[in-house]
Amino acid sequence: MEITEHIASLSEEGRLLSAAAQQAGPGASVPTCPGWQIRHLLRHTGMVHRWAAGFITEGYTTPHPDGGEPDLDGDELLDWFRAGHRHLVRSLEAAPADLDCWTFMPAPSPLAFWSRRQLNETTVHRVDAESALGGPLTTVGADRAADGIDELLTGFHGRPKSRVRSSVPRTLRVRAVDTDAVWTVRISDAPPQTVRMTVPGGADGGDGGPGTEGDGERVDCELSGTAEGLYLTLWNRLPLAAVTLHGDRSVARLWTDNSAVTW
Hints:
Largest sheet: 5 strands, mixed
Order of helices and strands: HHHHHEEEEHEH
Helix content: 40-55%
Radius of gyration: 19 Å
Structural class: alpha+beta
């Protein structure tokens, strides 16, 4: 995806999040974030938006603390969230292509990093807000979802902070049936190592059969489904039942039990 696409999608996702939050009300429970209400979701996401915008507008080249969550509620909190989201979007739109600031995962440029990271941050929390309504979720396109899977598997869980570990080496395959993307995640007592392959034909292309890669390499477990279904499942926003599982279920549980990204 292009940076301009990320920013445009970020703008829309923030609007969807605030609309769902307004409809649900500040006291509504967020099923995808146990213990949270909509007010907690707005405070957290609004704080992250302002924190990210600070790197873009101030050019911080080292880690910088966030400003904390506000003691706001109701309409005042919703207005605060919307103002911070607009500021983030406008900051990204106005930023130069050669923006120089701190980032915490590999990316082609700081501008590419922050536009992508805040799009995925906001998309996942928009799903949280919509889950409070109990109705259907707004669709995430296949290309966007695949890009989000890339960020999660190769970015977040390529870092030393990842808690997805196993004393016995395990291999998880993730196959998006509506794209050509297949990810192989090798789990050990070190940070997971993920390799993305392009397999024309989706689930039917280059598959060596249950439990194997197209090149014959053995895998312990495969998760397959639409890119959107996999994206939300890997972010623990949908249950494992939302995708198709072949092989050792304990490997999938190893992911779901240990992959949560915390602030």
